[in-house]
Every structure is written in structure tokens, then in C-alpha cells.
Please model this.
Amino acid sequence: MNAREELNKIKEYLAIATDIELSEALNVNKRNIESWIKRNKIPDKWRMIIQQKYDKTTKSETKTDDSVSLSVSLLQAGAGEGVYNFKSQELLLTLNPQLFPFLTKENIVAVEIVGESMEPVLRQGDYILITPSKEERATEDGIYAIRVEGMVKVKLLQFKLDGTIKIISYNKEFDAETYDGKTSQIDFSIIGKKRLLISR
Model:
């Protein structure tokens, strides 16, 4: 389903017909919606806002809410020095699968943020939902959960043309690092890419 089809489905949920009505319902400029269609991607932030809007609509009109509860694996990741241990527990999420079609119990892991190195984008106690990478190496820049020498971290990764990976913290008090798989002896692997942020 492309962004245009998703937006049409959302308008159907909200019982509205036009993009202008959708922009008013979400309190977002119509040009933003046009940008989503052009890029064929609805930002995760707006997916959450849309779900909240939809949930309120279904409750007020006593419709059946299509949201489902997912109990997903939970681990902790240090936004700083890293966290060694995985948490042997699960996190219960309630999501509308029509708005988040890429998220199912089988392909997502919840990661709890510990530390300050990714502030102000990610804060202590936030969660990100990741889809564990099936590839040995990802290539698209973004926020990832990674494992470094047994520690789990959440960082912004930039993939360079020379094959190296720049590991970046949003908090400027933390230095950026570069990983070179050809020469480094460090045990490094990518767990998965951030697909959704759940702020505390």
C-alpha cells in the first residue's frame, strides 16, 4: 500500500473525503500531506497522531476499534555507554495494523532508551520499535539499535561510500565514532532500524 492509498484509507476511517479536510483534522498544512504523497512515506510521528485521532473518533461514534494489542520482546539499549543485558520481558502495545502495516509481533522488537547521548531526539525512558535486520549490513542512514562488544546501543548511523559507518550521538557532549568493517577488530552488528518512536 503506497502513501496515497494509506491516506485514502485514513480518510475513510475519519469519515472525511478530501486532503483539505484531512489537513484540518490533523492540524497540519496541506503541503505536508502533499509532501508525504510525493515521498511516498507518512512520517511515524504523524502515524501516531492519526491513530490517536482515529481512536477518539471510534470511541465517540461507538465504532469497533481495529487496534490490536501486541506483546513484543523488550530490550534496553544505552544511549551512551551501552547496556549489556537484554531484558527478559515483553511490552504490551496497542496499535492499529492498518496504520502501521509493517509492525507485527513477528517482526518488531521494542527497545527502551537508557542514557542521554541521543537527547533531545530520544530521551531516557522512550521506546523505539525496530524491525530486526535480516541483512548482514544495512545501507540507509537512520537511527538503529546496534550491538558493540556485547553492549546494546541506539545511535544515528551514516553509511559512507568507502564502506565505513559513522556512529553519531545527537547529544554533542558525546563524540562520533567510525566503524570500518575491513580493519576493525571490534565485535559490531546491527540489530535493526527504528521504525517508530514512542515517547514517554
Summary: The longest helix spans residues 44-60. Residues 37 and 163 are 32 Å apart (CA to CA). The chain has four helices and nine strands.
